Amino acid sequence: MTDLIESLHAPTADEGTGSVTLGMPVSRVDGRAKVTGEARYAAEHPAEGLDRELAYGVIVNSTIAKGRILSMHIEAALAVPGVMDILTHENHPKTRSLGVFYKDMTSPGGSPFKPLHDANIRYSGQPIALVVAQTFEAARYAASLVIVDYDIEPHETDLMAHLDRAHKPSRLKAGYSPPPGEKGDAEMAFARAPVSIDAEYYSGVEHHNPMEMFASTVLRDDEGHYLIYDKTQSSQNSRWYVSRIFGLSKHKVTVRNPYVGGAFGSGLRPQYQLILAMMAAIHLERSVRVVMTRQQMFTFGHRPETFQRVKLAAERDGTLRAIVHTALAETSRFEDYVEVVVNWSGQLYTCDNIKLGYEIVSLDQFSPIDMRAPGAAHGVHALEVAMDELAHALQMDPLALRLKNYAERNPMDDMPYSTKELAACYHQGAERFGWASRSLEPRSMRDGHELVGWGMATGTWDAMQMFARASAVLYADGRLLVSSAATDIGTGTYTVMGMIAAAAMGLPLEQVTFQLGDSTLPVAPIEGGSSHVTTVGSAVQGACEKLQRRLFRMARALPHSPVAEAPFEQIEFVEGRLRLKQSPEKGIALSVLMSANGIDRVEEKYLLLPSLFKQRKYVRATHSAVFCEVKVDEALGTVRVTRVVSAIAAGRILSAKTAHSQVTGAVVWGISQALHEETHSDHRLGRFMNHNLAEYHVAVNADIHDIDVIFVHEDDRVVSELGAKGVGEIGIVGVAAAVSNAIFHATGRRIRSTPMTPDKVMAP
Ligand code: MOS
């Protein structure tokens, strides 16, 4: 006991001193595993230790967009050595509940597509067969031998040719907000104002193209339990979906996604390879892996083709009088995919007359799916290009126009913002960029043979919090294990959650493990909407606070306790010790505390529920100001984005380095959206034609120059207990608009569609 009492007053030497504070830059904790190949992705998990070897499934897709399968000739494929079976709509195993419970947690309204359900073809690229073989090569070769006779029906895949069929979404998705009703009389105000612009904007289909293909490795054991490594943004969503479709109890299915090689929204829904792999595993009673090819990555959701019209009107001094923003977007025949495209236009600028509209057109294509900042990436783009057009019509600086109409309360409904440091974004971003020395006139800046343009835009995205559970276990040797069924799609979840726990418990990051990516862990939401830090992070914080209180109670109960008289509020956890804030020498090492109590682990669990009552009184959003410089070679139509400054207000930044990387990556994608990305259809075939990375262009290293990210100070205790708002998506919003506006400033040419390819830049 003497030893114990002595140790109460001084930290022991072996506790480590690598303390973590929130907001510091930390390299991602999973970085080493990723660069060494130790991190396994969905298609890389071996079937080790299982009785049955892995079989490989290769998917056959339809070549027509609409019609019926008359007959499938699979004899030649079946004859390939090693081929075990071919699943089609005619022979796929009958499984309980199949066809009834196809909705996952993120389905849009409607009737989800069911692979191999019947002979009907609903879109080009629809999966119609799965060839299963002992080797991938045999399956792939056999798949090429499957011949299909179709009864072809006429299809409609061209949004612009079918705008007349636009309708209000009838089957809405939970959590979606349709455009609010009109404020004031926007058309009348538009007609009366002295200065106005009226413009149409078009953005084509885009695909996510994460590096990792969609894949599912289904490992079946002899008791009929399925362990599935799936590429998904939620192991629990995939687990729930598989359980429902195949009528398997929760205990028969475990889904893991410890590493995900990018997803950007494409993994919000389970994709069809998961169902096909499970069908084969059930049918053949063995382990099966199915991996999509890059071409097949273009056969499910995408960012929807969207056509927008924005009308803005103002007084001569720049005071906005009217905002009218309407959008028409595509969806499939079977689901009403919806996203918030126009609502942002009622959230950014003070205006008495605002009218917003959003409709969809059902086409013979697969349903779109959320893609990084869905709706905002192109909705705010249209508004922000329109604002630049208005500034030009007013002969006014584009930043001055935004500041003139700056909203201190939400324009649409006069609600307060939880926090909104957008003004600081404008000022700090402009300062860093050197915006003040911009010339007003287009075509007024040159660098050698290139025209130089400076453009800017505003960005905004929701700041959301969902519900989650987390557990935290502290071991006597000082290790802390924190768990939640969260996902890390490359965003840095492992890192930031580890930091939150380490900072709370005063432990070095090396002693903290955050466990995610397993459906058996405490409930976590789908990784989406930039909400993992606000949600799972707050749950981790909550679990750690419960641990703190428990340890504190234990410490107080010790004989001669140095903290006997102190309330919890005067206690801090630093360097592996619990101690008094005022007299840091009075405290006790956590390891000592636990051994004094004769325990080797302490565990706490926490359920984070958002305080909806408080949150609903505020508009909760992140904001950004993006400034960029382009250099345009008019002879070639080429655009180089030579400088970008992105100033972000996204609440408290907890993990400075991974947050910075998120925004940098999003700016890269914004440049890519602006200049490169579009999936082209041949509407005669109703099919995406550039379905590969050779012809679907994305920004490459040579396209990216200087990107400077600023985080403006914000601390938002309405959105989350940690003050954070989330940074996954805000970084892309407004970037393409800033590029578009810079191209106008450089050339005097207004390009109202993305991507702004050389043909458009050169057009007379
Ligand atoms: Mo994101 S598009 O919410 O995965």
Please characterize this protein's 3D structure.
The chain has 764 residues and is of the alpha+beta class. It folds into 3 domains: 2-22 and 466-609, Aldehyde oxidase/xanthine dehydrogenase, molybdopterin binding domain (Aldehyde Oxidoreductase, domain 4), CATH 3.30.365; 55-154 and 212-294, Aldehyde Oxidoreductase, domain 3 (Alpha-Beta Complex), CATH 3.90.1170.50; 415-464 and 612-759, 2-Layer Sandwich (Aldehyde Oxidoreductase, domain 4), CATH 3.30.365.10. Helix content is 24%, strand content 25%. It has a 7-stranded mixed β-sheet, sandwiched between helices. Strands 16-14-13-8-31 form a 5-stranded mixed β-sheet, with helices on both faces. A hairpin with a 5-residue loop joins strand 13 and strand 14. Dioxothiomolybdenum(VI) ion (MOS) binds at residues 233, 264-265, 268, 370-372, 374, 528-529.
